[in-house]
Specification:
By secondary structure, the chain is an alpha+beta fold. It folds into three domains: 3-289, no CATH class; 297-408, no CATH class; 416-475, Arc Repressor Mutant, subunit A, CATH 1.10.10. It has 15 helices and 16 strands. It holds the Pfam family GatB_Yqey.
């Protein structure tokens, strides 16, 4: 039997506010355990919460960027449950009246086709603490307790791991672009719960879903979907009864494990948060926030293809990061070579950033560095190969390319007389290879050029080398 997969994501986004959602404690990542706390975020008796206005602003801003309608009247609610890392034994969240509803994200596949994924709701809430499991026992760090979150709940519109990843990538790009979160998955700023079920192909009736908690990487999301779909199908075909449950992802063994039966809404005994007033959001405030939304990644993607004549693949990579897109445009303004800029960013610079696990603004180079480097290459002053060496040094020490080229004597040799001597030397020293080339082994031409470049220690102008090499071989 064939099966359809049904996927929905609940994405938890840690907001980039300086203080927590209901108190003045810092949201800075790290710090000694239990030092970013106060009576409010520790839930001590008599401590009253005060809602951070910036959290509401970021909620509205996210909703507008995701095509949602903004609920002008909304409130905070108590969600009652006991976990060791929940200091109050309840979470302050939003139940019936969330800040945003009915949005969407359009994802695009490699073949150019698109699909719209619905967003059911966005609500504000506070985060719990963090459990640390050690050999000595389980410890709790409450530094994260009270950090503001947006929970973005999709509709069950995705049907494959590919679609889920495209959705999450685009969501991450939008949220980073509008500045509400850094979305650093390795620090827990973006994590998601996966809801997945399978059903007979074409059936209208949904299958029994499982929720997999706290996936914090695209790879984990992909592997969890693949494993869980396979597990559910095998269970159905073996006659096993599936039940709604919450599972966790075992990263080491690449499998999901059952945690508990899935709670229903009434298990949480939601009721209005009596210590916080109802929110009344004005049209004027919504419009003020709307004006602060910059050009979104998918809008930038379309513009980059048209304005800079970039291939779709290049445009997609460049616009996936707001910082990278800005760096790209500033560099193009300097050197006027959009394709070269894209190639350097997607190649050597991206490799360096991945190796160091940093963003482009955390490197030691600026658009001026890269723009000047590309101009040196395009002006024939250094070769592309030398350019790679210069870039490597720029990334390490932040020196301008002109300085590195001058200090190391890397200016490209365009003296045709000197290059011609080297070309003749290579041909005269390799008569057998010349004979083979004349007999049809034309791929040896690149070898001849390479020998000249080696002889010149990479400084010979490769265009001149190729031109003279061709002329000299034709004379023989």
């Amino acid at each position: 039997m064939n099966y359809d997969t049904v996927i929905g994501l609940e994405v938890h986004v840690e907001l980039s506010t300086k203080t927590k959602i209901f108190c003045g404690c810092t949201t800075e990542f790290g710090g000694q355990p239990n030092t970013h706390v106060c009576p409010v975020c520790m839930g001590l008796p008599g401590a009253l919460p005060t809602l951070n206005k910036r959290v509401v602003e970021y909620g509205i801003k996210s909703g507008l960027a995701l095509g949602c309608s903004i609920n002008k009247v909304c409130r905070m609610d108590r969600k009652n449950y006991f976990y060791p890392d929940a200091p109050r034994n309840y979470q302050i969240t939003q139940d019936e009246f969330p800040i945003c509803r009915d949005g969407y994200i359009d994802i695009e596949f490699e073949d150019g086709t698109k699909k719209r994924i619905g967003i059911e709701r966005i609500h504000m809430e506070d985060d719990a603490g963090k459990l640390l499991h050690t050999k000595a026992g389980s410890l709790i760090d409450f530094n994260r307790a009270g950090v503001p979150l947006l929970e973005i709940v999709s509709r069950p519109d995705m049907s494959s791991a590919e679609e889920a990843i495209l959705y999450l990538e685009k969501l991450k790009g939008i949220l980073t672009c509008i500045g509400v979160s850094d979305c650093k998955m390795e620090q827990g700023s973006l994590r998601c719960d996966l809801n997945v079920s399978v059903k007979p192909a074409g059936s209208e009736k949904l299958g029994v879903r499982s929720e997999i908690k706290n996936l914090n990487s695209f790879k984990s999301l992909e592997k969890a979907i693949e494993y869980e779909v396979k597990r559910q199908i095998e269970a159905i075909e073996n006659g096993e009864k599936l039940f709604v449950e919450t599972r966790r992802w075992d990263e080491e063994n690449l499998r999901t494990l059952s945690m508990r039966s899935k709670e229903a809404a009434n298990d949480y005994r939601y009721f209005p948060e009596g210590d916080l007033v109802t929110l009344n959001i004005s049209d004027e405030w919504i419009e003020e926030i709307r004006k602060t939304i910059p050009e979104l990644p998918h809008e930038k993607y379309v513009r980059f293809i048209k304005q800079y004549n970039l291939p779709k693949y290049d445009a997609n990579i460049i616009t996936s990061s707001y910082d990278v897109a800005d760096f790209f445009e500033e560099t193009v303004d300097i050197c006027s070579d959009s394709k070269a800029v894209a190639n350097w960013i997607m190649g050597d610079i991206s490799a360096f950033m991945n190796e160091k696990n940093i963003g482009i603004n955390d490197t030691k180079i600026t658009p001026q560095h890269l723009g000047n480097l590309i101009k040196l290459i395009n002006d024939g002053k250094i070769s592309n190969a030398i350019g790679k060496k210069v870039l490597s040094e720029m990334l390490e020490n932040g020196k301008m390319p002109e300085t590195i080229v001058e200090e190391k004597g890397l200016i490209q040799n365009s003296d045709e007389s000197a290059i011609l001597d080297m070309v003749k030397n290579v041909l005269e020293s390799n008569p057998d290879n010349v004979a083979e080339y004349k007999n049809g082994r034309t791929n040896l031409f690149g070898w001849f050029v390479g020998q000249v470049m080696k002889m010149s220690k990479g400084k010979a102008n490769p265009k001149i080398v190729s031109k003279l090499m061709k002329e000299e071989i034709e004379k023989m």
